[in-house]
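Why should sequence recovery work at all? Because a backbone constrains its sequence more than one might expect. Tight turns favour small or flexible residues, buried strands favour hydrophobic ones, and helices have their own preferences. The token representation captures these environments compactly. In the example below, the structure is given first.
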């Protein structure tokens, strides 16, 4: 399927690189990846490294949702085929996400929720389950890392497309959308709080652990700032 060049440029701004291997790759093997993440973000704690990873992976998830909304497609890349790279930007150790244009799949608007399910369960939760086998970290923390970014995406989109956003939020609130998970992670994190409040008031129940990393500061809405 055809991925517009303008979309590739937009993706690059969100740390998603198309058809280019990482210059400084991270392993795709979960135990090795965690060890490399620990060295990269400078922590000795596996759980902190995994939480850091999902703060970064939130950019990939949000980029996927933006592609679906703006270009009618997404990268249906199996989680084991996602590639990760290391990059320094703004003096910070960050992660890039590398995909192949051949994995870009176009979908009609009425099928976008199936695409959401693949991104959230087929990609995000699959990676979360793999990494949590080797690290002690709450899944709630990792989902809050991802959905906090997604809430910003929808708060921005709502200004132009309120009906689409309302339909998507209804879907995200439905436990059935998250199977085989038992409950909607969106409902657990945000519930019925309006998006304007969700992005401007403290919502997290857990700390993302950025404050444990020397390169990052305590977040504004950290529930455990000390």
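From this structural description, the recovered sequence reads:
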């Amino acid at each position: 399927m055809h991925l517009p060049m303008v979309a590739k440029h937009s993706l690059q701004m969100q740390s998603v690189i198309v058809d280019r291997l990482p210059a400084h790759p991270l392993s795709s093997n979960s135990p090795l990846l965690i060890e490399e993440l620990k060295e990269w973000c400078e922590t000795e704690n596996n759980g902190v490294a995994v939480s850091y990873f999902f703060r970064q992976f939130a950019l990939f998830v949000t980029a996927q949702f933006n592609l679906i909304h703006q270009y009618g497609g997404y990268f249906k890349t199996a989680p084991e085929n996602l590639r990760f790279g290391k990059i320094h930007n703004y003096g910070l150790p960050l992660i890039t996400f590398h995909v192949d244009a051949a994995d870009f799949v176009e979908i009609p608007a009425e099928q976008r929720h199936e695409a959401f399910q693949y991104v959230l369960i087929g990609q995000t939760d699959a990676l979360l389950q793999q990494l949590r086998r080797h690290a002690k970290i709450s899944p709630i923390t990792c989902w809050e890392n991802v959905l906090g970014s997604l809430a910003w995406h929808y708060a921005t989109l709502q200004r132009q497309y309120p009906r689409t956003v309302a339909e998507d939020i209804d879907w995200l609130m439905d436990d059935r959308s998250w199977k085989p998970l038992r409950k909607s992670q969106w409902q657990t994190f945000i519930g019925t709080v309006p998006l304007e409040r969700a992005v401007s008031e403290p919502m997290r129940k857990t700390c993302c652990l950025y404050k444990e990393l020397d390169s990052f500061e305590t977040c504004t809405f950290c529930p455990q700032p000390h």
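A few observations help interpret the result. The chain has one domain: 5-212.
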